[in-house]
Amino acid sequence: MSKILVATDKPFAPIAVKGIREVVEAAGDELVLLEKYTGKAELLEAVKDVDAIIIRSDKIDNDVFDAAKALKIVVRAGAGYDNVDLAAATVHNVCVMNTPGQNSNAVAELAFGMLVYAVRNFYNGTSGKELKGRKLGILAFGNVGRNVARIAKGFGMEVYAYDAYCPKAAIEEAGVKAVDSTADLFKLCDIVSLHIPATSETKKSINYNLMSTMPKGAILLNTARKEVVDEEGLLKLMSERPDFKYITDIMPDNDAELKKQFADRYFSTPKKMGAQTAEANINAGIAAAKQIEGFLKKGIEKFKVNK
Ligand code: 3PG
Q1: 91 CA from centroid of ligand 1 (Å)
Q2: Which domain holds residue 144?
Q3: d(Cα 239, Cα 234) in Å, to the nearest integer?
Q4: Together in a domain, 55 and 108
Q5: Which residues line ligand 1 (CB under 6 A)?
Q6: pLDDT confidence of residue 89
C-alpha cells in the first residue's frame, strides 16, 4: 500500500479532496492530508514516509527531497511548476508532473472578473469603459490563453496573441490575430493579459521599456506569475503614466508601495485566486491522483516535466 500526501498551503475545496481520496482508496492506497501548514518544518515531517505528494504552489526544494526517503512522484495539481526544484527531483530519482489544462478555465474567468473591475474604475461610482471593441493582447497561447481568447470574443473584443512556442497558424486557427513579437503585442493592444510561465527566460521580461510602449489608457493584467514583471520598472512606469493600470492575481513584493501610491489604478488579490474554484480543484486534484496511481501501478509517465 502506498501513502499519498496532499500538501496544500492553500487547500482544495473539500469536494475535491473527497474525489482525490476516492481515487487513492479505490487503488488500495492511503491518503494523508496536510493543509494550511504553518512552516517548512511541518512539511518536512509530513513527507518522511510518503510515496507520492500532490501539491499546488507549495515549494518543493532539495530539503523536501532529502527528507522524503520513500518519495517516487510529485504532482503539481496545476500548470506552473516553477515551485519545484526539478534538478533536485531528478537527482533523488523522483518523477515530477503537472496537470496541464485542468484549471485553465478558472484562471481565464478570473481574468475577466478582474478586467471588468479595472475598466469600471474599481466600482467607485465614476464612469468607466467597456471591453467591447478594445484590443486584447494575449501573451502566450497555452491552455489559459486559449480560454481567455474564447471569452474575449464573447465580450466583442479584438483579440491578438503572441507565443514564442506556438506557430502563428495555430493561433489564427483559433480565430485570433497572431502578431510577430511580444513587443508588437504591447505596442498594439489596449490590454495585455500575461499567460507565460516563470522561467529564466521570462523572469522580469515584462520590463519598463516594453510596458511604456502600450497605448494611452493601457491595462496590464497578470494572472500568471509575479516574477515575470520587473517590479522596479513597473513602479517607474506607474509614476510616469497616470493612465496606466496594473491588475494582478499575484501580489508583487512591492504591493504596499503600489497600493499607497496608485490605489485607484493598481489592484492585487490578497491571495492568488485564479485556480481557486471547486471545478478547477476537482479537475486538477483528481487528475493528479489518477496520474500518481497510473505512475505507481503502471509506470505511466505522461505529463512528466523533469528529465
Ligand atoms: C497554476 O500554475 O496552475 C496556477 O497558477 C494555479 O496555482 P494554485 O494551484 O497555487 O492556485
Answers
A1: 25
A2: 104-268
A3: 9
A4: no
A5: 10, 56-57, 78-80, 103, 272, 274-276
A6: 99
Give Cβ neighbours of residue 37 (< 8 Å, ≥ 6 apart). Answer: 7, 9, 43, 46
Kindly report the CATH number assigned to the domain that includes residue 162.
3.40.50.720
In a domain, 307, yes or no: no
pLDDT-based confidence at 50, cuts 50/70/90?
very high
* pTM assigned to the model: 0.97
Q: What angle do CA 288, 202, 221 make, to 5 degrees?
A: 80
Confidence (pLDDT) at 132: 98
Q: What is the chain's alpha carbon radius of gyration, rounded to the nearest angstrom?
A: 20
**Residue having the nearest C-alpha atom to atom 6 of ligand 1:** 275
* Residue 144, domain member (yes or no): yes
- The β-bridge relationship of strands 191-194 and 219-222 is parallel
CB proximity list for 252: less than 8 A, separation 6 or greater? 226, 229, 231, 234, 258, 268
> Ligand 1 pocket: which of 17, 56, 59 to mutate (most atoms <8 Å of CB)?
56
132 and 207 within one domain:
yes
Other CB atoms within 10 Å distance of the CB of residue 209: 12
